[in-house]
Amino acid sequence: MRLACSECGVDAASGSLFCSECRGLLEFRLDPAPHDVHALRLLFKERRASNDSLDQSGVWRFRELLPAIAPEHVVTLRENAIPVYRAQAGAVYADATRLAYLHLGMNPTASFKDAGMTVAISSARSRGSRVAICASTGNTAASMAAYAARAGMSAIVLVPAGGVSEAKMAQTLDYGATVAAIDGDFDRALEIVRTFDSERVAIVNSINPYRIEGQKCAAFVLLESRRWNAPDWIVVPGGNLGNTSALGKGFREARDLGLLTRIPKIAVVQAAGAAPFANVFRDGGDLVPVEAETDATAIRIGAPASWRKALGEVRASDGTVISVGDDEIAEARAIVGRDGVGCEPASAASLAGLRKLREDDTIARDDDVVLVLTGHVLKDSAYAAAFHASVARLANKIVRLPDEAALRALVDRASAVYA
Ligand code: F0G
Q1: Residue 79: its pLDDT value, please?
Q2: Is residue 72 domain-shared with residue 158, that is, in the same domain?
Q3: Ligand 1 binding pocket, CB closer than 6 Å
Q4: Which of 136, 212, 243, 321 to mutate to test the pocket of ligand 1 (most atoms within 8 A of CB)?
Q5: pLDDT category, 32, cuts 50, 70, 90?
Q6: d(CA 83, CA 350)
Q7: How many domains does the chain have?
Q8: What is the pTM of this model?
Q9: How many angstroms separate the CA atoms of 288 and 5, rounded?
Q10: What residue owns the CA closest to ligand 1's atom 10?
Q11: Which of 247, 280, 310, 337 has its CB 3.0 to 4.6 Å from that of 241, i.e. a possible disulfide?
């Protein structure tokens, strides 16, 4: 694998974050050397039955397709051992017949960030870094804190004051990170982080190409669960757009290696108050940053760093980018809950987006669709509690029963439904 600029293609030194020629983001490029795809598929499958910690990781299990890192430097929490669930309530809600959830919220720190973080922190440790830093809306923070703790590194997090779920902050503090709240938003926090020297501190936001390599493995896990058959569509929430870049890269590489014959179309869904990528997809030209505002705090991002990479992936897949309102996200999130699955608000943008794409028939009723759920329901329990206490159509209010007889009547009514 070689590290090169994602924009001008010039080779880059490992450990750097930006191209020395044009300041573009870097990316790893897989060697064109032929692989025996049957042998690879078998190897990946056999490792799932192994007790080795690297083999049990849904990232390191695919290590032939990752930058080389010596096993003694790898920091793993067995990330990406993630389920694909059939969506039932979600399918009815979006009027789609073949729908599944790829639940990346079932990762060790309960979000998709772990798949990238294991590679970024392992790489930092192999270079002898002592300190890791990131800007975050909460999930990157928790993930970095956990992996840094395992690696014996210090973790420093910059978050927008007041703009992050309490549960994510508590989790990050638990893992021992230093959390610095700033007066600006996520975009300002990332701007500050970018001023640090990446030779001195490990910057582990998704501008770090090692993060992208780990996160691309979610595509492999999904494909493996489907015997290396791609769905027609994959629908993913978009914030800083590292994940869109990573998933697109994963599918493309799998196709280029001969592991699958066609890639899925990628639909990116943003929150309407934080949708600069939807704008640039529609209007063309350069991305115009916005002042981001949405209740889905994980994706409250106005100047996404990876927009060029992500746009390349969406176009290469013949996909699309749309935005949905906060009310649509809230309702879709409740529906994912009714499936006995659950997710945090930002994740539900994918179901809200699918519903919209079904309404205008961009996605056909019988298309084979996978929704990416990026974070666990408990990541923002305060949001869920507030929703159920509200007047929303799907709010599920806590009931007060006057006496035991009322409870018995309730059980009788519930039983009658099945009679
Ligand atoms: N979903 C969740 C739950 C997230 O936490 C994020 C990003 C996204 C979607 C968007 O992914 O940025 O790769 O497009 N959270 C970051 C963080 C920014 O700091 O935790 P993206």
Answers
A1: 98
A2: no
A3: 111, 136-140, 206, 237-244, 298-299, 344, 346-347, 374-375
A4: 243
A5: confident
A6: 17
A7: 3
A8: 0.97
A9: 22
A10: 239
A11: 310
